[in-house]
Amino acid sequence: MTGTTEDTARPIGFFDSGEGGLTVARAVAELLPHENLLYACDTAHFPYGPRPLAEVRSFFLRFMEFFVEQNCKLVIVACNTATAAAIDLLKGAAFPVPALGVVQPGAAMAARVSTTGRIGVAATQGTCDSGIYPSTIRAIRPDARVIQQACPILVIRAEEGVISGPEVRAEVERCLAPILAEQVDTLVLGCTHFPHMAAVIADVVGPGVRLVDPGQATAAQVADLLEARGLRNPGPAPGERRAFTTGDPERFLEVANRLWPGGVGAAAQI
């Protein structure tokens, strides 16, 4: 199956509450450099973690309308909390454009790479409360023991663009202590903000714990889906990257340039 040039040039949409989903966009950009990317985030309502899932679901549905208006060929819900809030819709065909969440690819990778089945998940409170990671991982690997820990302070730090230094390391150590005490061999970065500080997290957990970035696993799934539907952009030009935020575009760009230098050139408010 091969799409028309007009079809393949349509953008891939990314949705998150803030800057965290840039880790997923970056993974897709590295794997599929010719794709046009449209990143949209709801910084006016950040953070999503403490909010009721029903409220997060309503925010996400409004953004889906925006992605459809922008003629996206695929939407990636680059937010674990939003994925948990809309998992039933993502599993079905509720939208006129296909949409993928980041939980299932990350859970599948964790289940596959863990040797002992003792898997940690660092996430937001909303994602932990939903139970989406334990249920998804155990559906793939019934013997798994999944230990969750909400790490809201790390979400805030990443959103501020503060992803290294002694204070961040101390906060990572405090957040991950309950997980590491359970002798996990795999840690899922269950919030898309956390891969921004993966270097610090890797140093804290040590070489005996495998880090799983759901964004990397999602990028591979995106490539497969686009190929199967004949929607992969063959290039040759590099893809265009546009960003939109419900908050302050200048503030968004300031942080984005620290988290992904050169990744986003301009942002507009919606």
TrEMBL record:
It comes from the Bacteria. This is Glutamate racemase. Pathway: Cell wall biogenesis; peptidoglycan biosynthesis. Substrate binds at residues 16-17, 48-49, 80-81, 192-193. It is an enzyme of class 5 (isomerase). Belongs to the aspartate/glutamate racemases family. Signal peptide: none annotated. The lineage of its organism: Bacteria, Bacillati, Bacillota, Clostridia, Eubacteriales. Provides the (R)-glutamate required for cell wall biosynthesis. PROSITE patterns: ASP_GLU_RACEMASE_1, ASP_GLU_RACEMASE_2. The active site is at 79 (proton donor/acceptor), 191 (proton donor/acceptor). Keywords: Cell shape, Cell wall biogenesis/degradation, Isomerase, Peptidoglycan synthesis. One of its GO terms (molecular function) is glutamate racemase activity. NCBIfam families: glut_race. It catalyses: L-glutamate = D-glutamate. Its EC number is 5.1.1.3.
